[in-house]
Amino acid sequence: MAADAEGTDPGRGPSPAAVRRRQGRVEEKRLTVLRATLDLIEEGVLDPTIQQIEERSGVPERSIFRYFDKEELALGALALAAEEFHATRGVPQTRGGPLERRIVHLVEHRIRSLSSMANLGRASRIRAVDSPELDRQIVGNTHQLRDDYALFFEPELARLGDDERYELLDVITALLTFEGYDVLRRRLGRTDDEIASTWGTALHQLLS
Fold it and tell me: How confident is residue 157, by pLDDT bands cut at 50, 70 and 90?
């Protein structure tokens, strides 16, 4: 008996090719939903509803719930964002050179990174309240940044005792987090140039 148009043999079930095609369609729809969710967040809809995602993606609500629960949808969209913004995360590769030049490079890099994903940063903090997994990711990213700063400012930190070095790293990490940026940008109304100047001055005072 011949297989049907979907590649299904009534005697043996779907063929491997048919299974792959169906899986491909599912993955395509999942990506469409994630992309729509991410686009809405980037536009300032920090907690988009299923109805908004359905309208933007063209994928019916019942299918969205078949592919994701609410936490999976948020995690998936933010993971997609992390892939796209991977090149702007962390700290610059430059390690050597005068402190003043390194501070300029670091501050420019952080401002560029944080301003480009400001709405994503806010959305992830909102979601993290109800998502232990997302909260763990944010905590892990913060610890990674602290380790990066330890290497970036190694010449200056090496002159300090263990306790002072540990405390100074905590201060630098807190200063340059998304939360630190958001307080200055959104709550105090500072421009990115003003934030860069504030951060530069603070880092000079801390490390000189």
Answer: very high
